[in-house]
Structures are given as structure tokens and as C-alpha cells.
Design brief:
The complex is a heterodimer of chains A (about 500) and B (about 80). Chain A is of the alpha+beta class. Chain A contains 19 helices and 13 strands. The model of chain A has no long low-confidence stretch (mean pLDDT about 95). Chain B has two helices and no strands. Chains A and B meet through helix 1 and helix 2 of A and helix 1 and helix 2 of B.
Amino acid sequence: MISKWLATSPLMMLQELLDQPKDKMPIFKPAIGPVVVMRHADVIKCLERTDLFTVDPYAAQMAIATDDKTRCPHALSHFLLGTDRDDLYRLDDVILRRAVSRRDEETLSALARREAEQWTEATRRAATGEIDIVTTLAKFLPLRIVADYLGVPYYRDGEPSVLPGLCGGDRFALDPDLQQVFTFTKIQEGIVPRADDLFNWVKDAFRNIFNNFNPALPQFAEFRARGLTATEYLSAYIHALIKHYKERLQRGEEVPDTMLTRLIRMQLELAAGTDTALEQDLATLLGAPPPPGELARRLSDSMIRSNVFGTAVGAVVNPQEATARIVDSMLRLKEGQYEILKGSTFEEAHRLARIEQGDPDYAHSLQILRKYALEALRLQPQGEVLLRMCVQDNSELGGTLIRKGTMVFAAYAAAMRDPEVLPHPLAFDAYRDERPVAYLGERERANEAPQSQNYLQHGYGRHKCLGRYASEITMRESLRALLRLGQLARRSELKMDEQILYPESLRVGFT
Amino acid sequence: MPPPTQPPSAQTFLGDIAAAEQAAPVPPPPPPPPSSDDPKYAGNPALFEQDKQAAEQATAAFVTAAKARGAGWRG
């Protein structure tokens, strides 16, 4: 019942729960099934209390991207999005947040801007006066980030790749070194991906990890099999990239600066003893040095492979839907569906998007366009809940007893419209106070930007999205590029797939 | 169970839940299974067996009712 409502009318359902008297229904707890937490304070607490509410539900399918424990009993088989064990989580967290950093904002902005402008130019040349956001900007800006920032590139059919002698679409033998530690059951060869290969791998793996929990659904087995196949292709390809770039770095050759090559550099510099700063920095952030040998273990080829895999898998379909939702929400703003506060009109966003680089107001225009994107997404969020497992009987959420083993839906979409913390929650206000807080700012998140308590689309607390900076830039640049096309008008509703999980089409006309 | 592509039948979520609860009542959650280490069972294996069977029956009834309610979820 809850699933059906979340799939078909999530905002209506969550609003109904929020509207119940708090003393009578602090959280929604049915006789059986998952608990729904909808009030802001409880959602925040649920996401912060990782000792009580864990990400365990995601762990099993994430583990299939790691080394096979039956072959390597001592292998690590976690990805940080699927574990709340401090001994596993914290060291990976500080390593990955060093490789994917807020210091890359300029690089990310340039990447996203270039990709966005290519699509809008191509759209203008096509002279149809229409763009489908889902299949263009929303899909390809995240893919560009995965290719050029995370370091997992795709190619046109026949285009030479970075892998020697291989072009886009070419097949390659599975590396015996990888087969020593990783079991392939679905594929016999790897593929150098084209854009659609990479997109489908990421989507299939993402769906299997985050949206495929119910064996009673008819497509459960198919989605599981597709997830496994995608995991094998992506793992084989990332392994090939690691091997290639590692050899080049060992020969002293230049390589692109990406998440993947940064992790390889850390590994090589650690092994050579030339980067003592890395160990010192991590010790400072963690409050104590990692156990001897542990850093090298976390920077092994296998861990680099599974961490790049996990980051790439999280970096495409969510931003794609987010961009589609933002555009849909902005069109609703234009159509008069929201009360408008502080002059946050569609026309104002349109004006801001046309301010050119070099104009004194340019930097300000980008800041406000980012806030337009966040506010649009707050009102039409991508996804509505984060899944957590209660691991200890407790009454921390609304004073209601939740038993160990209960699934908890932390409804961040509801929290973002809780009138107790957001005045006029259903109105569009691009100038809202974000209420930033420095989560763990004195320790391992010291280098991170503060996180908003009002905009929860990238999560909150420990599992705050690793790709939040890239994602926000993608959202902003997609919106800016679209607004710069001209006067916009909706040509279709946002069309979702059969399971109402992934966007398929949103057509926008421009003149 | 078909994929959730149809809009909910009732006008409100809580109305839908109430209708489901009426159509397929769920008994109270089963008690935890008894532990043979519990002092109250010392020297009284028959009582332990009786409580164990009661707990198993309650669990089975609960699971059956939960299935009738369509328990299952999507993340």
C-alpha cells in the first residue's frame, strides 16, 4: 500500500501525513510494514542517528561490485553508501572526499557548461523549436561528469579510446588478474562503452541496488539479472582503466586529472612513501592515524575499482531525474501553479540566465540560479524517501517505539515542506535561508561545505551525497542553458517509465 | 502483484490504509519466542514447549495476515 502511494501520488500522501496532528501521528506506523517518518526534526534525526538507523538495506547488492569473498576471504566487500560501521566507513569517507572535492567547482562548472552549450547549440541547429530535456541535457551533463571528472569515459562508435588499440564499442578480454578476485557469471568479454552502454550500465546497477527490493514484483528477477550484468561490464571496464592509467603513471606519463587517477596517485605515492601528507591529513581528520597497513588496503586496486564504480553509479540517473523535475517545476512556476515569494518569478530566472560572464552580476546570477534549481526541486523532488533499517529498539523518532528490524522510510520530500521549519512551504521562494550547518565540521567533514537543513535532496548527515557539488552545478547549468534557449513553453508532461521510477521524456518548446 | 502503475483507489492515503485494515485485519504483533534460559522454565519443559508453540502460532498468524495485506515494499 505504501509503495503504491509512493509510486503514484507521493506528494499527496506525504502532505496528508504532515497534515495530521503531531500529537496524534508523530510518525506513520502501520500495524505491519515500514514506518514513514515525515516531520523535519525526525527525518534529520533518522539520517543523523546512524547507530540506530542504518543503510544496511543497500549493502547486499553493492557488495557484488567488490571482490569475491569466496576467492579472497580477507577482501573488503563494502561501499560506503551501504555501511554504517565506523571502522569501514570513516576512512573511505575521508579518502573519497579528498578525491571528489569542493575545490573542483571551477573544473566542474566548465565541464557542465561546455556539455550544456553543445546540446543547446545542436538543438538550435535542428530548428525544431523543441528540446526533450530527459534525453539531452539531463542525461548527458551527468554522463560528462562521470566521463571527465570521475574518469570513466565513453566514446562514439569506432572512436579511439584511452585503452590502447580499442575504440568505442570494441570488446576486450577479461583480465586474468581481475578474474582472480572477481567472479564473472554473466559476461565473457568487456566492452569499451558508448554513451548508451555506460548510461544503461549505470541505470541497471542503480536500479538493482536502490529500487529492486520486492521479489513479488514481476520484473524483480529481470532487474536483478540486468544489475548483475551491468556490474560486471562496469567493473571490467573500470579495472581496465585503472590498469592502463597506473602503468602510465608508473612510466611518468601525463594522465587526465580525475577521481580515478587521483586515487591511483594516492596509492602509488603511499607505496613510494612520497606522500606523508596524506597520512597526516587523514589522521587529523579522523582524530587518530589509521591502523598500520589499513590505508594501503583502502587504496588497493580493488577498492579503487569498487569505489569508482559506486560513485559513478550514483552520479547519473538521480541527477537526470533531478534536472527533469527542476524543469517541470520551473514550468509550473511559469504556469502560475505556485505562490511566488520575494519576486522569485520565472521571468526573473530567465533574466538571470542571460547575464553573461564578465558582467558584474554574473557570479550573483549563478548563485541565485542555483537556488532556483534547489527550490524547484524542493517542490517537485526526485525520489521522496531514503530507506533505513532500524537496528535497535528505540523511541527516538516522535517518541514512537520502532522495533529492531523495521524498515524506515525517511521522507525528506515531506521534511522539505514541513511548516514547522519552512514558512510558506508550498510557495516558491528562491531566496530562502538554507539554514546551513557544519556537520562534523570540526572533524572528518572539516573540508566540506556546510549542508543545508532546508534542502535535503542530497541527503543529510553521514551519507550526504559525495557528488553534491557536481550535482548542484549540473542542475544549475542545465537550468541556465535551457533558459538561454529563449521563451519556453511546456510541450508535454514529465513522462516516467512503467515502474514510475525513471524519467523518459519532458518536451519543452522555445522561440 | 502487478507493478504499481495505477493511481491509488481511495481518495486519501489514510483512507486507503483504513480500508485495507478492515479488509484484512492484522492480529497484534507476535510476542518474542521464549528462551529456554528463562528461569520460569527451569524444571518445567512442558511450560516452555507450550509457550514456544503459542509464539510460533502467533507468528504464523501474523505472517499470514501480513501477506494478505500485501506486505512488501519498494525503496
